[in-house]
Design goal:
- The structure is a single chain.
- It is built from two helices and 19 strands.
- It is of the alpha/beta class and 259 residues long.
- The strands form two sheets. Strands 5-6-2-8-10-12-18-14-17-16 form a ten-stranded mixed beta sheet, with no helix packed on it. It has a nine-stranded mixed beta sheet with strand order 1-4-7-3-9-11-13-19-15, with no helix packed on it.
- Strand 5 and strand 6 form a beta hairpin.
- It is elongated and about 80 Å long.
Length: 259
Amino acid sequence: MYRGPILVPLILIVFGFLLLGSNLGYFAFDFWQFVKTWWPLILIIMGVDVLLGSVRARSVKPRTLALDLGTVSQADVSINFGAGDLTIGKAAPGKIVDGTFEGEVRYDAQPDGRVWLKLEPLNWWGWSPSGYRWNVGVTDAVPLKLTLDGGAANANVDLTDLKVTDLRVKTGASSTTIRLPRAAGMTTVRINAGAASVKLFVPEGVAARVHSSMALGSNDINQQRFPLSGSDYVSPDYATAPNKIDIQFEGGVGSLAVV
């Protein structure tokens, strides 16, 4: 099992001993002269480590994970994912979370329905040349709070049949597509995006209110379904609809589409 980066800590330990010995007067060590003379060797060592890490990442088989739902009445699932492809859908019956995971997946599951998943890269620089791939299933049996924290990821999230009442998304330079719930009652969506392209699909028959705050980005809202009302885009039947979604989006230089 991968336990974390090795090369960088070793380099720090070696330099620490050399600097400590120099400060204590055991021997002379000029750090900057060392770097000036040997920096090409340092690059070679780092390059070899990157190459070996890439080979290892490709040779490691995806891990399968399946966590039982138990008797909980609600679920709170947090997914921390870096670079690669992330797919989220419905878990198998009786499971709170399941799926296949490339890279080392760290997780914590509590008896009260809280589950935390985090991608642990297989190398010290934190990414794979082809990107990591996660295919995650989440329970559709109980109300769900779902938190997604991603970096440079391509995310395809299908929540159509899930009972998501609270969705939190934080993403960087990514492309994210989310199909929102069709029968979850009231769903709150909060998205914070950097240089991201985000597309939200609101199921037919579900009302929505959309508030978007962009720095330099663009909005593409279906105003036939969600006409502009003041500073928000709101379904005409939002107040009385049995299933509705409140969307608040904060973005940098990306784009938001709601259809």
